[in-house]
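Lesson 9: reading folded outputs for more than one chain in a single document. The general rule is that every protein is listed as its sequence immediately followed by its structure tokens, and records are never interleaved. Here is the first one.
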Amino acid sequence: MPSPIPITRLLPKDLGLEFGACSSPVSSSASGSTLRVPPNRFHGKIAHRLWSSVINWRELQALEPIGSGGFGTVFRGTYLGKTVAVKKVKCVKNKLASRQSFWAELNAAHLHHQNIVRVIAASTCTPAHLSSKDNIGTIVMEFAGTLNLQQVIYGLADPLPTDRCLRYSADIARALQHLHAHHVVHLDLKPANVLLSEQGVCKIADFGCSFKLSSSNDTETHLSEIGGTFTHRAPELLKGEEVSPRVDVYSFGITMWQLLTREAPYEGDRQCILYAVVAYNLRPCTNRSVFTRSPLGRTCQKLISRCWDGDPGIRPTADQLLDELSVLM
């Protein structure tokens, strides 16, 4: 069953196609917030890529629920004989937000990277026997395991040595490096959205809040609605300022702090925390022993402090972040 998903959600933009315009809530271009979709004539390389916008429903079997969130449920199943994760995006009270979440999930669908959960196929059409009235779309992804860093940090009794924390951090930085090179900002980076595979490799997942930035340096992007998790949200987003890849670096700083301390970033009233982050530069405490007892800990503390600096210009890029982490490992 073919899907009405615009093909350029799943294809790179350098294929030399003729384009027509179509409304999209989660993309931007120099001429405005529109998605460019090709006319219906494909051949060669493009025709080969079209399989990612079609789900062969007969090959999707043995769905078993493994998790759920605000916008849907994730299942483990088999597709074309391989274990996959299947995310069904449902319509909540805010229908626009639900649709935006589905389209945003596909912002990184054309990217293949070892530290990013890969999209295999997606569709807004669902067979009657699998569909429900609140279903918006289905996404088939690689199965990266059922364990996330939130569970590793707070749910496991096993020690979490500094060298392993640095390895996990470097995995996340590699993913950000690849995303930002392709003008994709995740906007909801946190331990719960980083899966840990059976091989011990971290993979960024859940792109439901992500945004595709314009490749033009002349275009500023501002979000009318802020998604993501308040504890990891950069202050410039709270102030309605320009969105840039540095917002993910801010979230990375909070995440790395959690890995090293295994503590919650903040305690208290949500609104008070948000106000203090913007007005008083509130950040998680860095006087923990993990940061003070060794030169390595002090170096990590300085790096984290730069990542969550209130001035985005002081934060390192993903490239710089990866370089500095490589030296520490």
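And here is the second record, again sequence then tokens.
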Amino acid sequence: MDTVVAAPGLRGDFAADVVAFAAYWRGKPGKQAARDARYTFLRRHAGTLYDRLTDRRGKFVRLERLVYDAAAIVPGLVPTKAEVDAESEKKQADKDGVEIDQGILANQFLADPECGRHLCHAMLLPREESAEALAKFRRDGRLDLGTAKVERHGKAAVLLLSNERFLNAEDNATQPATEIGADVCILDPDSQVAVLRGDVVPEGKYAGRRVFNAGINLTHLYYGKIPFLWFLIRDLGFVNKMFRGLARPDVPPDEVAGDSIEKLWISAVETFAIGGGCQILLATDFNIAASDAYMTLPARKEGIIPGMSNLRLARFVGDRIARQAIMYERRI
């Protein structure tokens, strides 16, 4: 059983505090006491740790690598990959919550103005796989990434969400493919606009129909197959790239001179856009919906609050409808 012991005091020296706090966490203090100590350590050393991980912000490291590199530098601060993999075998309700500590680390990195800006910059760069994918798309006019596809239609590059078994819902398997597809659409020099659309569902109730996006894959969420980092990587990567465009290594992501790589995004909504699928519409430039399509935010039934909708939906539909959609699942 965990025991509650006093956390070490901060000495102010990074190396000395790493040794002291790592020993403290190795002693398995109470869960909350251990987390309080992580906040204490990071409030003092988040910037120093980030600089160690990125060679003083001289290189860009994506979040999914940062958290595990940090586990090696400061043992006990965040879980190792082996610990997260073991946790992923449990249903969501049975998890021990080790990924919460990854959230604490990301929170402190993003809270620091310099580190946070640099991390957002890293996540807005094209993924390493995207250059090869772009070359294939330009050669063939289409690209099959499994759970996402890219097709050329005239001057439009069309990104198709293709997780058909789950009504084009998003999960851990769709994330890399969707972000690479977005990179390809934005980087493609032969297209003038990018279109986000759901693929045709081959069977079931909606067989033969296009479905835009069913939101997060609730089956995978129930069985614990959607990691905490999924949420951050999705919004800092795929969604933010549609909203801001792609960054360049030598140009900050908040530049205003037009040096980022941008493309106008159009969402084509057919059948429905549920949950996270609905919230994507707040990041694209134009939304075109079929007359029988609907949008809804059922997150409250899952015990969570919609992410972007609380900040942006009221701008589009007004305060009253936004509250009804978020709190009472009103269909739009």
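What the second record shows: Residues 213 and 300 are 18 Å apart (CA to CA).
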